[in-house]
Amino acid sequence: GEDVEQSLFLSVREGDSSVINCTYTDSSSTYLYWYKQEPGAGLQLLTYIFSNMDMKQDQRLTVLLNKKDKHLSLRIADTQTGDSAIYFCAEKGSGAGSYQLTFGKGTKLSVIP
Amino acid sequence: EAGVAQSPRYKIIEKRQSVAFWCNPISGHATLYWYQQILGQGPKLLIQFQNNGVVDDSQLPKDRFSAERLKGVDSTLKIQPAKLEDSAVYLCASSARLAGGSFGTDTQYFGPGTRLTVL
């Protein structure tokens, strides 16, 4: 079945860039998403990318997609303490009825002041 | 626009007891999802409704879990009887996906979740 892998932890200094990586196995993925989860809260959609795109930029966020290697990354520029959270990568397949998202285990980002 | 609402936010029960969670999706959203998020894991889909019909419940433990969305709006998820391994956060999400329509990203919007502890 589909699988999404992420590194579990990332620590960066405030003001530096953060890069969170994700790999997935479903080559038929149509959309890939990044969600942010703060303690005690639900998931907040940060950004998404369609599978025929290589890059998407949205303010401080840059998403890179290497479809050949099935590798997705999220770059956060000028990381702030408010960016400390768990970041989930998720992919959606293309099969009939494949509405569900498959999530990774999440990367906990810690920002050091 | 109001977000996805869930209640209660926290629930503590003993094993073998029953529990129910409630979700009110974003107004007008046809599709509703229930996810289970065990500590340290990503969310796992339990069941998906489109309007009041079940689209996918392949990962729902049907011997103890049930869910309904009778009028195609609010939904309840029930566990009866609960086991220790059911301790998790139960997330509800909704999206605008409509049967036969053009779905685009079909972005899912999540509620704050209900944290269940089974003792």
The percentage helix of chain A is under 10%
Q: Tell me the greatest interface.
A: A-B, 23 and 26 residues
Rg of chain B over CA atoms, rounded to whole Å, is 14 Å
Beginning-to-end CA distance, first to last residue of chain A: 40 Å
Shape of chain B: globular
Quantity of strands of chain A, as a count: 11
Sheet-strand content of chain B, in percent, reads over 45%
Number of helices of chain B: 0
Q: Which class do the helix and strand fractions of chain B yield?
A: mainly beta
**Helix and strand pattern of chain B:** EEEEEEEEEEE
Largest sheet, strands/sense/barrel of chain A: 6 strands, mixed
Multimeric organization? heterodimer
Q: What is the H-and-E element order of chain A?
A: EEEEEEEEEEE
Average pLDDT of chain A, rounded to a whole number, is 90
Main pleated sheet of chain B:
7 strands, mixed
